[in-house]
Amino acid sequence: MKRVALAAAILAFTVASPAFAQDRESDAERMFREGQKLLEERRYGEACPKFEQAYKKDGQLGTLLNLAFCHQQQGATWYAWLEYREAELKAVELNRPDRRDFAKSQLPALEKSLAKVVIDNPKSVPLVEVLVEDRRVPDAEKGSPFAVEPGHERKFTFRAKGKKSTPLLVNVNAGAKTTHVTLPEMEDAPVETAPVEPPPPANDGVEQRGAMPAARAERPTTQSSQKTLALGAFGVAAIGGVVMTVAGIMTFTNDCASLGNRDNCKNDQAGQDEKSRGDTTALVATIGGIVMLAGAAAGIGLWVTSPKEDTKSSHLRVRVLPSGVAGTF
Question: In the chain, where are the structural domains located?
Fold first, then answer.
């Protein structure tokens, strides 16, 4: 009976996993479309959270660009700068020079109202990330200049492998001069504490500013994940087939089973026990066959319906706004 329970659990997992992935994708798509509509209506306070939620679910570069653009129009200059900068680096990783150039082109105008900061790391501490007001600053740990909203005392947090997270309050002044922040002394982390790793890549996407991307581009991730699920379903089908075959052989070779040679079955307690075993193996074989068929059907369905990459939708469409220029690339 343990085999029966295992087969049932595998079948449930096979059916539930694709449904969960599809629900997550449909939620991201729905929130993205809602954010687009609100953005066109200039309801930035409602649109930006929609894009942010969609990006947390799909991690798409196009979604991040829309988020950056929304923050730019809302006047959240520093958030827009962070997101465009993240988008620029992500576009390089994805080999998307069009989006890299677009994101990069938005930065100079935003930087006019922001202060420039550089982290000095004289002891070459292996920094993992730098946060300002709990927002990760892309590439700041590498010593690259970055922008910070001036005029206030800002909380910097430094994280490094084998070190405790170290906060530092910094006065950031406005002006053309770059502010240099020296990395403070960082204490070693306790031996039992795992080295600090970067948070889940929030830099897979990019915020949008100066242009309004109308569609998310990256579908290879969804396509790959669905085909992976399809392969998993085929694996489940194979397991079901093995269970069915083994249990079927045990049933056919059982003289007291309904499918066996009952003429040789003894009419005593031993025969009754043999009959009970035969009935159990027959049930296991039946369930194995069901799992095999369900897994094969799910695998074929997932493989056939996996989304194909649409080269047209992967382009970033930019619409004309009163405050900007439009184009397509």
Answer: 42-219+310-328, 223-305
